[in-house]
Amino acid sequence: MHQPAKYVKVYNKILKMIEQGQLISGEKIPSEEILTKEFDVSRVTLRTALSLLKEDGFITSIHGKGHYISKNNSYSNQHLENFISPILTTLTVPIESRETYYHKNTSSAFTDQLFGVQNRPYLTLNVWYKNGINNIANNLAIVMPETIDKFSVNLNNPKSIVQFLENNVYKVASSSTLTLSVSERHPSTFRRNFINDSPLMLITEDIFDIHGDRLIQNKYYIPSTLFRTEMVRHPNTLS
Question: Global pTM?
Fold first, then answer.
């Protein structure tokens, strides 16, 4: 009987540490130098194990900073289906800070159709999510001024904008639809630089009130190297 390859043994050891809570979600794991000594393996063996853990969604890597335990690995109870901001469950690295700004815009055919209005101005709220100094995701939110007034959002207060986008709007919303795709936009076309130039995943989220009216549309852009999600599906039961 063949013995498991060394990288498989390392994979399983690290996985067990995650499962038992020795390595915590969002936590940075020890350096490669420490791990090679700890497991008594070569750096090539360790990197093979780490690449598989990354492939399976248990860890993520930030260039120049190291490896981190993913927030939404298989031992987490968070899924895309949770009725919260999807940015909080799909990023594989911790959000350490946010940068916000907004714009007032004149009417457009797109937003008129989106909200079922005619020749109405609208607002765009922009949130950049950061890990350290690195931009790891962006949300472009499109919303009507009356919704901002309804939720008493102070546009000059970044915390008020974040509270609205990530919490308050979900408390009164009746439903939302999510569309996942690979964005056609190149990272270089944004006003801020992303952490890397990998293709961007796009989550388009439309949030509706109890009357079926659209409250807001969010467009989340996430580098594919930092994106992972899990969906729980159930078969239909016919009575």
Answer: 0.72
Residue 66 one-letter amino acid:
G
Q: Is the pLDDT of residue 157 over 60?
A: yes
User: How far apart are the two ends of the chain, measured CA to CA in Å?
Assistant: 50
- Put the strands of the sheet holding 134-143 in their side by side order: 97-105, 122-131, 134-143, 214-223, 200-208, 175-182
Task: Sketch out the chain's domains with CATH numbers.
Answer: 6-69 (1.10.10.10), 87-226 (3.40.1410.10)
pLDDT band at 201 (very low <50, low <70, confident <90, very high): very high
CA nearest 143: which of 85, 189, 88, 102?
A: 102
Return the DSSP state at 83: S
1, pLDDT greater than 50: no
Q: Which of 21, 88, 87, 19 is nearest to 53 (CA)?
A: 19
Q: What is the DSSP string of 135-189?
A: EEEEEEEEE-HHHHHHTT--TT-HHHHHHIIIIIHHHH--EEEEEEEE-SS-GGG
Whether the Cβ atoms of residue 60 and residue 67 lie closer than 8 Å to each other: yes
Give the separation between CA 145 and CA 134, rounded to whole angstroms: 31
Residue pair 91/138 in contact by the 8 Å Cβ criterion: no
Tens digit of each residue's pLDDT (9 = 90 or more) over 90-114: 998 889 999 999 999 999 999 999 9
pLDDT in tens, 26-84: 788 888 999 999 899 999 999 999 988 888 788 888 877 888 888 666 554 445 566 78
Q: Which amino acid is at 2?
A: H
Residue 110, C-beta contacts closer than 8 angstroms, at least 6 positions apart: none
